[in-house]
Amino acid sequence: MDKLVSEISRLAVEFADVPMLSRTHGQTASPTTMGKEMAVFAYRLKRQRDLAAQVPFFGKMAGAVGNYNAHLVAYPDVDWAKVAQEFVTSLGLSWNPYVTQIEPHDYIAELFHAVTRFNNILTDFDRDMWGYISLAYFKQRTVAGEVGSSTMPHKVNPIDFENSEGNLGLANALLEHLAAKLPISRWQRDLTDSTVLRNLGVLAEPIQTVMRRYDVPEPYEKLKAFTRGQQVTQASMMAFVEDLHDLPAEAKEALKQLTPASYIGNAAQQARELPQHL
C-alpha cells in the first residue's frame, strides 16, 4: 500500500502542470490537470491505508468459554484478567476483555473492510487509466519481444490495468466474505470460522524446510502439531520460530520477515523470462 500511494503521489507532482480535458458523464467538461486527477487517487488511497494501519489486532486468554473457569479452579487467588491482559499485550496485541472460546474476529473484519475500500479505489484508478489510454491521453510503451495483441500487431492492449481490475475484484470477493463471516460464531463457539481462517496465508512450508537445513529434529511433525487444526496468527508463528533454539539468529530473522505476499520464490523472474522460452 505504501509503495503504491507513494508512486501515485509522485505522478501527481510530476504531472501537476500537464493540462487535460476532463470528462463528466463521459462527455467533455472543464479543463483540469493530470497531476490533480492523480492527487485525488493518492489522497483517497492514503486515507484507506491509514485506516487499515489503525486497526488494532486483538488477542485473548480466557479459557474455553471466556470466563477463566479452569484457571480459577486451579488458582483461585490469581487475578486472571490482569494476567491475561499482561500476557496478551506482551505479544504486541491489544487485549479483548470480553470473549467466548474465541476472540470474536471483529478486528479482522475491520481490517478487511479497509483493504476492500482501498481495492475499490484502486479499481476506480484502473478504469480511469484504461480510459485515458483509450483517449490517447497516455501512450503505452512498447517492449521488445512483448505481444501487444494476440491478433493485431499494431496494438498494445492495457492488460496490466485490466488484470489489476480483475484480480482486485477476485480479492474483494474473498475479503468481503471473510469480513462478513468471521465475526459470526454460534453461541460460545462453532468451527465455521476455523475453516474460513484457513484461507489466510500460513508459512509452514518454508519454516520446516529451513529447519531441515539446520538439522532440527522432526521438522514436519513439529509444524504439523503447531498448525494442523489450529488458528495460526503472525504472532504465534513468530513465537514458534523464536523458540527454535537450533536455528541461528540470522535464519530466524529471515523467517520472521517472510509474509505470504513475499513467499513467491522466483515466480516474478520466471514470468519476466518467458519470452526467452517461446
From TrEMBL:
<protein>
    <submittedName>
        <fullName>Adenylosuccinase</fullName>
    </submittedName>
</protein>
<dbReference type="GO" id="GO:0004018">
    <property type="term" value="F:N6-(1,2-dicarboxyethyl)AMP AMP-lyase (fumarate-forming) activity"/>
</dbReference>
<dbReference type="InterPro" id="IPR020557">
    <property type="entry name" value="Fumarate_lyase_CS"/>
</dbReference>
<feature type="domain" description="Fumarate lyase N-terminal">
    <location>
        <begin position="2"/>
        <end position="166"/>
    </location>
</feature>
<dbReference type="GO" id="GO:0006188">
    <property type="term" value="P:IMP biosynthetic process"/>
</dbReference>
<dbReference type="InterPro" id="IPR008948">
    <property type="entry name" value="L-Aspartase-like"/>
</dbReference>
<comment type="pathway">
    <text>Purine metabolism; AMP biosynthesis via de novo pathway; AMP from IMP: step 2/2.</text>
</comment>
<dbReference type="InterPro" id="IPR047136">
    <property type="entry name" value="PurB_bact"/>
</dbReference>
<dbReference type="InterPro" id="IPR013539">
    <property type="entry name" value="PurB_C"/>
</dbReference>
<dbReference type="Pfam" id="PF08328">
    <property type="entry name" value="ASL_C"/>
</dbReference>
<dbReference type="InterPro" id="IPR022761">
    <property type="entry name" value="Fumarate_lyase_N"/>
</dbReference>
<feature type="domain" description="Adenylosuccinate lyase PurB C-terminal">
    <location>
        <begin position="201"/>
        <end position="264"/>
    </location>
</feature>
<comment type="pathway">
    <text>Purine metabolism; IMP biosynthesis via de novo pathway; 5-amino-1-(5-phospho-D-ribosyl)imidazole-4-carboxamide from 5-amino-1-(5-phospho-D-ribosyl)imidazole-4-carboxylate: step 2/2.</text>
</comment>
<dbReference type="InterPro" id="IPR000362">
    <property type="entry name" value="Fumarate_lyase_fam"/>
</dbReference>
<dbReference type="Pfam" id="PF00206">
    <property type="entry name" value="Lyase_1"/>
</dbReference>
